[in-house]
Amino acid sequence: MPELPEVETVRRGLAPAMEGAVIAQADVNRPDLRWPFPSNMTERLTGQQVLRLRRRSKYILADLSSGETLLIHLGMSGRMLVSGDPLGQFAHEHPQKEKHDHVVLHLENGARITFNDPRRFGAMDLLNTESADQHKLLSVLGPEPLGNDFHEAHLIAAFKTKNSPIKSALLDQRIVAGLGNIYVCEALFRGGISPTRKALKVSKPRVAALVPIIRDVLSGAIEAGGSSLKDFRQADGELGYFQHSFDVYGREGQPCRTPNCGATISRIVQSGRSSFYCTTCQT
Q: For the whole model, what pTM was predicted?
């Protein structure tokens, strides 16, 4: 599942072609993905200008001139592909239609935005822009980890009564939005905290130190173009490269990268997800 850096990378890739552009025609080629598409989706998108492209957690939000916002979730295998970009930032000509091209936006500027999703775990919805934050998928989200509302006091207060492992607490989207399995593993390694330690048992200074660590991990991944694991691609089809910088994720049995540690990376399963960590460096 793409995490915050992957989604932000896609948003940045789409923005030059989409922001300010008018949707000349919207092709909706099936009635649903993970959930049914909103009614009259083709008509509600066609003719609208994309005023702004933003991100909330793992969702891309396209604010339209109609006063509605197109919500996009990539799911497990969803890709947003740009072709025919008149700004010259993408080399791809318009490709032949593929089997899993479920939604295609033809823009008046000559660009084409294709949502391709073989597994169909992605989602799209249309919601009122003014009340978008009240949408059922967005209203439950905590602060953005790169925003001003995510700070030491917030995380300390959130963990104060949290009896679950800190790994689970950081994956709780009500505490912090957009974090997923990969980057929680990486952040906990840099913070020297075991993923099995109860959140309420972690000292305040160690919790506070996680805030800048989380920001650095996410910022580094965004700068590197997201992590290309399995189906993820950037909007121009290029791969991201942050996976080459993983300290623990996917490195079970390999040496810990901490100088003079000598231990190997372990893997355990927590709530059905793999946690990678160093039993020596993380306590």
A: 0.89
